[in-house]
Specification:
By secondary structure, the chain is mainly alpha-helical. Helices cover about 45% and strands about 5% of the residues. Helix 3 crosses helix 5.
Length: about 150
């Protein structure tokens, strides 16, 4: 994207945020770990959502992680939404919550419709509980009798 179109995109997003000083980022936000093909090509975000996430993602991430403090009322409200104190009302709040939900892990749907969730550690039962049941094993195959030693 050219520098002119980047600045035009920033101007267009000012109306979404409420003020020009909110959610300022000086570089684009990408998450190659969870969205290796980008937000637009992932199929999870609309073009507008992907563009806003790329433009303001670093600022939202820093506010979410506590690396920066809110400067404007919009950013303070965003932090409250992230904490779960209030419901999301702005477009950026909705986009960031959607991003966080998807970044935690997408469920995998197999062809037959079985849902495979991310693997978790299996719980191991205590060794004592594994041997509580007495089971008699019967052999169907008869062994040849071994001669006994007589003394």
């Amino acid at each position: 994207m050219s520098e002119q179109s980047f600045s035009n995109a920033n101007k267009g997003s000012e109306t979404v945020n409420g003020s020009a000083a909110s959610f300022v980022s000086h570089k684009r936000f990408y998450d190659d770990t969870n969205f290796p093909k980008g937000f637009k090509r992932s199929g999870d975000f609309t073009s507008k959502e992907a563009e806003l996430l790329e433009l303001h993602g670093h600022a939202m991430k820093n506010l979410d992680e506590g690396k920066s403090l809110p400067v404007t009322a919009d950013e303070a409200q965003f932090v409250e939404v992230i904490k779960g104190n209030i419901a999301p009302s702005s477009l950026l709040e909705h986009i960031w919550l959607k991003y966080r939900k998807l970044a935690l892990g997408k469920p995998f749907y197999a062809v037959v419709g079985t849902v495979h969730l991310p693997a978790t550690k299996p719980e191991i039962e205590p060794v004592e509980a594994a041997f509580d049941v007495d089971v008699e094993i019967e052999d169907d195959v008869q062994d040849e009798a071994e001669p006994e030693d007589k003394e």
